[in-house]
Request: fold
Amino acid sequence: MVLRKNILITGASSGLGEGMARQYAARGRNLALAARRVDRLETLAAELKKAYPGITVVTRKLDVNDHDQVFAVFEEFREELGSLDRVIVNAGLGKGQRIGTGRFDANRETLQTNFLAAAAQIEAAVGIFRKQKDGHLVVVSSFLALRGVPGNATAYAASKAGISSFAEGTRIELLKTPIKVTTLHPGFIESEMNEDISKLPGAVRAEPGAQALVKAIESETAKAFVPTWPWSVLSKLFPFVPASMLKKFG
Ligand SMILES: NC(=O)c1ccc[n+]([C@@H]2O[C@H](COP(=O)([O-])OP(=O)(O)OC[C@H]3O[C@@H](n4cnc5c(N)ncnc54)[C@H](OP(=O)(O)O)[C@@H]3O)[C@@H](O)[C@H]2O)c1
Reply:
């Protein structure tokens, strides 16, 4: 397995992105961290550089919905680190609202951020990887990509189903090249999106969640449900759950 030294993570200012940055810093990798809350990125970068003086950590303010900026910032990171060996498309949000209740604004923002902006990040990363003739693309989708779901999660699940398909198509496009693609389908992991995990079935705390994500990424598998237990087993059952039962959770 190739050691991917320079790793770009979007959405690194909190939650899963921050957790993966901490895990990779401890493994001696160089980091390029992006998000809108750049103050949080700078605090994290200072902490990681102090704890692991051998690594380089660079940060940039980035709103992934500004697609030109996505391409510009990824290229700046590449120049700064010399190469990008792995890009983790992680920035996302779960702000959706019940369909037809006057909150298309929230559903549009969810679809734009989790699908269109993630597609822009995939384009930018793969463009760089094609020139380098090497690289590992990681797309953070969701367990909920597997089904249409009701309630506040309808737009979220649809955005994740869309980006999973986009990532799979990209992976097949790049078969027989040195460029690898992994799609992650996390279950419930503690983060700003899921602050109170006590009521969420199968949820894990932030640190074991980040460890499980990094383990799956390092395997460079095509697709992983994370943490494996219980989400890999549930992924086999979820397609058969009757709509009437899903409705109760909406
Ligand atoms: N936690 C879970 O259980 C879970 C499960 C399945 C999938 N996921 C996925 O994991 C990813 C990370 O979510 P999380 O749970 O860690 O939530 P989180 O703590 O809310 O983190 C979301 C991250 O995305 C960034 N972000 C959001 N909108 C952005 C934008 N327009 N431009 C740039 N960055 C943006 C945020 O940074 P700024 O606000 O600073 O920009 C933040 O760093 C998401 O794609 C989410 O769908 C999470």
